[in-house]
Amino acid sequence: MKQRLLLITFSVSVLILIGKFYAYYLSGSTTLLTDALESIINVVAGAFAFYSIYLASLPKDLNHPYGHGKIEFFASGLEGVLILLAAAYIFLHASQHLWTNQEIKSLDMGMAISLGSSALNGIMGYFLIQMGKKEHSPTMVADGKHLRLDAYNSLLVVLALAITYLTNWLWVDSAASLLFAFFMFWQGIRLIRTSVAALMDETNPKVFRMVIDWITKNQRDEWIDLHNLRVQQYGGDLHIDCHLTLPRYWDLNHVHEEIHDFEGTLSRVLPTHIEIFVHADPCLDECCAHCQVSDCPIRAHAFQEKIEWNNVNLALNQKHFLEQLNRP
């Protein structure tokens, strides 16, 4: 489904590209050139997005034990770089024509093509973003945002051409291109920043929060402590590992069954493939103060209070003790 949607998007982007350059050829408008250059990026990025989705779907192998999903972050970063390059060219071109009175004609045709492309890109961008969020695909989200950006650009083109057509203020054509060049630059920086963060395994606060909320919602008394929780994204897939403290008097079979249940519970946090690794820790006497196992046969201290699991203490690589939390 993802590859089919991207293939349709790529095909439509090629047709839009041809239409925009035809409109620029007829009019000579700098603003229409801006729109056409943006479409070149759409086509190139769409082709690479299609390939990255295909590559990310390949199964794990000996050389890629965590799969190929991170290619999606590289794809979104490349799209950001392409946007920056286009923004730089548009800025230079528009600056050169800002104070010149170049001939502009056939603006009605240019407005019609830009308005049509804006509608098409807006629709495709919406569906790509929605599908990308559903499938947790950074490539589809980045491509959808880029198409949505192109739709906004086309609307700005229509507005600039309409003002130029009605007032004959030729400088508006270049001024609109400069304005959108700055907007494109900001969008490109954001895409690159997000891509680099993901490639460096920076924690996604939203996903991390969802994992914590899911764990606490399904928490059992036997899960005495949870720490060293790490969530890594590999494209649309997740890799989660943590340390889970269980009663030390349990035999190995019981521990194995509990971890299996814990992994099964955690695997339903998001509708995507999730790989989970759990390291089992035995409880200590210091855990008794917050252990909620009511029939514990080896309890050394009375229960005092429950420790609330949050994004800070779950990420720490140490067991939680009340004296640590209450330390000034």
TrEMBL record:
Belongs to the cation diffusion facilitator (CDF) transporter (TC 2.A.4) family. This is Protein p34. GO terms for molecular function: cadmium ion transmembrane transporter activity; ferrous iron transmembrane transporter activity; zinc efflux antiporter activity. It holds the Pfam family Cation_efflux. Residues 221-283 form the Cation efflux protein cytoplasmic domain. It is found in: Membrane. One of its GO terms (biological process) is intracellular zinc ion homeostasis. Its main location: membrane. It is a multi-pass membrane protein.
